[in-house]
Amino acid sequence: MAESIPIVDRARARGDQLALIDDRGSMGYAELLDASARAASRLLDARDDLEGARVAFLTPPGTDYVVAQWGTWRAGGIAVPLCTMHPAPELDYVIGDSGAELIVAHPEYHAVLEPIARARGVRLLSTETLRDAQPRPLPTVPGDRGAMLIYTSGTTGKPKGALTTHATLSAQIRSVVEAWEWREDDRILHVLPLHHLHGILNLLCAAMWSGATCEFLPRFDPERVWERIADSEELTLFMAVPTIYAKLTEAFDRADTERQAAMSAGCKRLRLMVSGSAALPVPTLERWRTISGHTLLERYGMTEIGMGLGNPLHGERRPGHVGVPFPGVDVRLVDDAGSEVADGTSGHIEVRGPGVFDGYWNREEATREVFTDDGWFKTGDVAVREDGVYRILGRQSVDILKTGGYKVSALEIEAVLRTHAAIAECAVVGLADPQWGQRVAAAVVLAPGQQLKLETLRSWGKEQMAHYKVPTLLRVVDALPRNPMGKVQKPAVSELFQG
Questions:
Q1: Domain's final residue, options 124, 141, 158
Q2: Measured at the alpha carbon of residue 36, what is the angle toward residues 31 and 38, in degrees to the nearest 5?
Q3: Residues pairing with 384 in the sheet
Q4: Distance between terminal CA atoms of the chain?
Q5: Is 382 within a domain?
Q6: How many structural domains is the chain composed of?
Q7: Which domain holds residue 453?
Q8: For the chain, which terminal residue's Cβ has fewer other Cβ atoms within 10 angstroms, N or C?
Q9: In this structure, is residue 296 part of a structural domain?
């Protein structure tokens, strides 16, 4: 019996309480414990302990995923979740880079994984065989044993495996459970990918830790999500990314008045709705508040740290802000020299705490580069703290533009541009410029039926500068469009602001 995996140990007191629901049926906690013990026995084969061997697995969202994950942990292995949307070369890369010794595949993915397993000489198991094994004694797994390798691309280079131990993962889960007051009568609708931390930690692991119920949809489908929200009396939580909320808003707008009323009423029955993984545009937040009655709780996290900052469960949630540190998490902002900055001054986000990962798999130099000498993790993101509340300015290597001697947040400029009635969506980037260093350039998608002229936007921009305090906004509206090779083209408004 594996006595030292906290999330598994906590399940022992849950009995037949409902744990998981998917399109195939449901599973209680006692059944999950039995199924994962059998899976662990199958993975062990003739071994007593996988001793940190990596087990890559590819399954649709649902019970098969959790059985493979828990079975790997209980056998003493490190879980390496694969992405259901990745083509064979990307799957092969993760399997090879992680040094996976075992691959578990749902029958749906057997055809794509079998050639990879054969070429690499790796044992391939079907999810259907995991539950057939006879239970056997399982190893005791220490807290400092690796639990998961989640591959994250960052902004440069090939994806790196971020390693978390069982102790680290438990700290991340406890922080989320405390901040959002998870309880055993919660039920969450799960529509997120399960190779990213968002779907694994905030939804699945937090639910299983708390004795709650996790209900899976096989993939995100706006109509099915609305069906469950509108028609379910049991759901209490929903968490997603900004794009999903935008798609749900579009589906809401297509519905008739009677159905819209049911949709809104279903949202109001939920106790919490969360947005993360990307910056939440303020117009999306405000529109969703009108539809649902919820001010989405925006938070900030990373594969390497779990959740770092979040708006409060109770109290004011500031649009465009990501709140304060999660329980057990230390956060600071520092300048280029590593000195802490005062409120109102932008700085690099650094994080410390028991939920910070151990490092990148087989990349000692990359790991050293992201930690300070005194143990703080350098996130690579930039923020400003205002009255103790953090606001993300963007990714240091992508979203922080250096123009005319200023450091400018592309995210802030995008937020301003989105308030223009003619602009539906936009992206701001920095283009190399001999005079400015980087010239701020914007690509926008016009709202249906709208047109936009440069002089009109320039005049509007002058009015916004004082209000939004974005000193380089005029440089955005003055920017010349360029072709992919960087050569300046004629400054045609249609080329700059259509597409």
A1: 141
A2: 100
A3: 391
A4: 58
A5: no
A6: 2
A7: 400-497
A8: C
A9: no
